[in-house]
Write a structure and sequence with these properties.
- Its main location: membrane.
- This protein is an alpha+beta fold.
- It folds into three domains: about 180 residues, no CATH class; about 475 residues, no CATH class; about 55 residues.
- About 55% of the residues lie in helices and about 10% in strands.
- It has a five-stranded mixed sheet with strand order 1-3-4-2-9.
- Strand 12 and strand 13 form a beta hairpin.
- Helix 18 packs parallel to helix 20 and helix 20 runs parallel beside helix 25.
Length: about 900
């Protein structure tokens, strides 16, 4: 069949009458699809989908016969009930759907359709997997199932003595009972006798059945054009053939069943998603059983991270309280506020149009800064560097326990089937280097390199776009700072008179720039998200794990630059290269480089972190709570007579929001970005773990509430660990040591104060050799002669006292009149050497501690290793014995025949021999 023929037929259909157009499309369809389509339509090879009415059992999870369980639901809009002029346009969708459902029935699935109770145009197709199909695909997907109960005695917990206290922090054991532990093995259809099958209806859990149903739906064909086979429910959903596809919740979340035991959804809501139980541990086994291992491992990680944050939050809160107490005894802060010291120090203008200002005008800022810039911050930064190592190492141990308990120890990537999108594009052949078998691939090696190169180039372009936006914000900061300072100096801001004494140019610039930065971050996130998904689709990864890992790296790299670049600028760039008043550094040849406050940029970094973390948390909660609730409410309100009719379970779930396949990806991304804020810049904001802890306590319950009440049941998926997020967390942990050491060294004022305390503090007071911080402010400010400025300062000088000849600026330089005037003095080199030495020493100590902790703490607990070995041994013994029994059973008839045959032959030979013997020989 040629393409030209198809195009010609399509053009004829456009010009024909309505009836002829329908017949013409039938011809085109018959040409494009399999030859068996006609036989499928006539019911010769496959029975048509049975259509039944609603049986008035709203919470039923079965077909109308009450026996066959509903494993999946497909929803479509009936084309026959559409308007006449639109009906012809929908025929192609109808035929694709009919062929798809016929393919499902050929694969052994059973279908039953029922019309909607609320919307007469909707049809719901119930999908059931018979026992034989379940056994087949359980073996295909390597699902591990019980072979015998676990006979190993568990080791007693070290917390058993505190059971009377800890039991209140766990779900009610009467409602959520502990499951019986089994040794498991990958299911094999021809060895069913080896597995612990008590009830065939309960042997495969609903989540397993839904997972197998989804796998089959992703493999079923719906169209063939030439040599191209089109298959998979994803494409049909995207093209509108089906409106939704989802597994069913097992009941209402807020109503307890009177006839049977409480549904798992009801238990999850009351013991997990209900806000009143925020203090309780999560029922992870039930979460995993209901939603699958992938969702379970996410909530396990989130709960473990939150629990570890509690320790960091306590220490961080202690450091914050220490800062509040030390604020009263901070000598350098008192000197800034002292009218006899800070009140008499005139500071040089910080921009070309700014005015002179008195140091004690920053008294309030210096007092707030002393809360965060103290010795406790150094201790807390070192503690957090060790904390993050303990967190990752203990998480590996906990993850190993979950891997064993949830049967994902031997879950390997080669067991994961290829994505349907990947298989549909496989047109080239190559020899597999592992198996030696010729297989089909979607592109050649050269084509793969081209696709990856385009993806890398696109990501680099967007990262450069982020950096350009950061430069634009920097220019905004400079322009606003100059404008605000000029207007303030000329008293042009009369409308701000009540708050003018509280709002400084630095504060106004910092707050507005932080807000603009946050808005730009959110806009770029929305745009880049689409680009990253498009690039990943273009690269065409083989498996879902490869797809998610590729998308994870792209998104995190972008988010890392997007969220953290402004913080890195404030911490390590701003105020570091400014020159001095007589020779300032110019940006773009016009704007004078932005300077920090006399207390440094640490307070501004703290403000930036607080705004981004707080704004991000509020925005995410709006997205996760408010939007789903509003969408569901509007969906119910727009439905006709929804509240007046009893709707079945499948239609109630259809009215909920669908969770995208990347739903968990965004949850992980949100938490990992927060993890970066908590670890990378914690030296400037000890309260970051406290804010993160409060946010996560809400996050767990909000996510649980969203999954349980506002969303359709997600398709269960297998997962061994948190995937690509694990190396990302490890990379953040390594980088956090360097960033915190550099923040303390270059952003805070701690190292210069320590150098002054130990090296220079005794010189101004030679009669007293005791080290003191008195005179530090005067020592940290250099002197500049106004007459040495190459700029016209006539206008600026009008704002200065009449007898002013010098001003002060923050730096360590020789004063005017010195042979090396305005060059860095000896104190500067002492401070610089101390900063570099501090970074090297702290990094080496912390990295050595991290290495030792990683070596001492094993990734897999010893008890788990024993249980894994025991399970492997039992699996080998049971399956090996079964194999021997099967072989013996098969060979026994052959052996018996052989023995019987040999015995018969022996008797014949004996009779013949006796006939030839004499009587004497016979007696002998």
């Amino acid at each position: 069949m040629s393409t030209d023929g198809i195009e010609e037929t399509d053009s004829l259909c456009e010009t024909d009458e309505l009836g002829d157009a329908e017949r013409c499309e039938e011809v085109v369809y018959a040409q494009e699809f399999l030859p068996t389509y006609q036989s499928i339509r006539e019911g010769e090879t496959v029975t048509k989908t049975q259509v039944v009415e609603f049986n008035d059992k709203p919470e039923s999870l079965f077909f109308n016969d009450g026996i066959r369980r509903i494993d999946f639901i497909l929803v479509y809009e009936d084309e026959d009930k559409k308007e006449f002029e639109k009906r012809t346009m929908s025929q192609r969708r109808k035929r694709r759907r009919e062929y798809f459902e016929a393919s499902l029935m050929k694969m052994g699935l059973e279908l039953e359709a029922t019309p909607s109770v609320v919307n007469d145009k909707l049809m719901f197709v119930k999908v059931h997997l018979p026992w034989d199909v379940l056994c087949t695909y359980a073996e295909v997907l390597h699902i591990k199932l019980p072979i015998r109960p676990n006979d190993m005695t568990p080791r007693p917990s070290m917390w058993r003595f505190f059971t009377c206290i800890t039991k209140h922090f766990y779900p009610d054991e009467k409602l959520i009972q502990k499951e019986v532990e089994f040794f498991t093995a990958p299911f094999e259809k021809n060895r069913q006798d080896c597995f612990y099958i008590k009830d065939k209806d309960l042997f495969f859990t609903p989540s397993m059945r839904s997972r197998m149903a989804c796998y089959i739906l992703s493999k079923a064909q719906y169209e063939i054009r030439g040599n191209i086979i089109k298959f998979g429910i994803t494409k049909l959903l995207n093209s509108g053939v089906y409106k939704a596809a989802y597994p069913l919740h097992d009941g209402k979340f807020n109503v307890k069943s009177k006839e049977e035991a409480p549904s798992e959804r009801y238990l999850l809501y009351n013991e997990w998603a209900n806000p009143k139980n925020f203090y309780k541990m999560q029922p992870l086994d039930l979460i995993r059983k209901y939603y699958g291992e992938k969702v379970g491992i996410y909530f396990a990680w989130l709960g473990f991270y939150t629990m570890m944050l509690a320790v960091a939050a306590v220490v961080g809160l202690g450091c914050f309280i220490y800062g509040l107490k030390s604020q009263e005894t901070s000598t350098w802060s008192k000197e800034v506020c002292d009218p006899d010291i800070g009140g008499k120090i005139v500071m040089c203008p910080q921009c070309d149009l700014c005015k002179y200002w008195i140091l004690n005008s920053t008294c309030e800022t210096s007092q707030k800064l002393s809360i965060f810039d103290n010795f406790g911050t150094l201790v807390f930064a070192v503690f957090m560097s060790i904390w993050v190592t303990l967190f990752l190492e203990f998480w590996k141990r906990y993850q190993a326990e979950l891997e064993y308990e949830w049967d994902t120890v031997e879950f390997l990537e080669q067991e994961e089937p290829p994505r349907p999108e990947y298989e549909a594009r496989c047109i080239y052949e190559r020899k597999n280097p592992v198996t030696g078998i010729t297989e089909k691939v979607p592109f050649t090696s050269c084509g793969r390199c081209v696709r990856i190169s385009i993806g890398i180039g696109t990501v680099c372009f967007w990262i450069m776009l982020i950096l350009a936006s950061i430069v634009a914000i920097i220019v905004y900061r400079l322009a606003v700072f100059i404008t605000f300072s000029y207007q303030l100096r000329n008293n042009n801001l009369k409308n701000l008179e009540p708050i003018k004494e509280y709002v400084t140019p630095q504060m106004a610039t910092s707050v507005t720039a932080s807000l603009i930065s946050f808005v730009v971050i959110m806009i770029l996130n929305i745009l880049y998200e689409r680009v990253a998904i498009w690039i990943t689709n273009f690269e065409l990864p083989r498996t879902r794990t490869d797809y998610e890992n590729s998308l994870t790296m792209k998104m995190f790299l972008f988010q890392f630059v997007n969220y953290y670049s402004s913080c890195f600028y404030i911490a390590f760039v701003k105020g570091k290269i400014v020159g001095y008043p007589g020779k300032p550094v110019k940006l773009l040849g016009e704007y004078r480089s932005e300077e920090c406050d006399p207390g440094g940029c640490l307070m501004e970094l703290t403000t930036q972190l607080a705004i981004i973390m707080g704004g991000k948390a509020i925005w995410n909660n709006i997205q996760e709570v408010l939007l789903p609730w509003v969408k569901n409410w509007l969906f119910r309100r727009c439905g006709s007579n929804v509240t007046e009719k009893v709707t079945p379970r499948w239609e109630q779930d259809y009215q909920l929001q669908a969770i995208s396949q990347l739903g968990l990806f965004y949850e992980y991304l949100e938490m990992v970005i927060q993890f970066g804020f908590v670890t990378l810049f914690v030296a400037s904001f000890p309260l970051a773990p406290v804010l993160a802890l409060i946010n996560n306590l809400f996050e767990i319950r909000v996510d649980a509430w969203k999954f349980t009440t506002q969303s359709r049941r997600i398709v269960p998926q297998k997962a061994q660990d948190i995937g690509a997020w694990q190396p990302i967390l490890q990379g953040i942990a390594i980088l956090a040591v360097a960033t915190n050491a550099m923040i303390i060294a270059f952003t805070s004022d701690m190292i210069p104060r320590l150098v002054y305390y130990w090296s220079f503090s005794v010189f101004p007071y030679s009669d007293n050799t005791e080290h003191t911080m008195r005179g530090y402010i005067n020592s940290s400010l250099s002197v500049f002669n106004i007459s040495d400025s190459p700029f016209d300062l006539t206008d600026i000088a009008m704002s200065a006292p009449s007898n002013l000849t010098t001003c002060r600026y923050r730096d360590f330089r020789y004063p005017p009149g010195h042979p090396w005037q305005y060059e860095h003095n000896i104190q500067y080199w002492h401070v610089l050497g101390a900063k570099l030495a501090f970074i090297i020493v702290v990094e080496h100590i912390v990295y050595l501690t991290k290495f030792l902790l990683s070596y001492v703490i094993p990734d897999v607990p010893y008890a788990v290793k024993e249980r894994i070995k025991r399970e492997k041994y039992l699996t080998h013994v049971i399956l090996h014995e079964t194999s021997l029994k099967l072989v013996t059973r098969r060979l026994k008839p052959l052996i018996d025949d052989k023995i019987s045959h040999d015995a018969t032959n022996f008797n014949k030979e004996e009779i013949e021999m006796k006939a030839t013997l004499t009587p004497i020989e016979e007696n002998n």
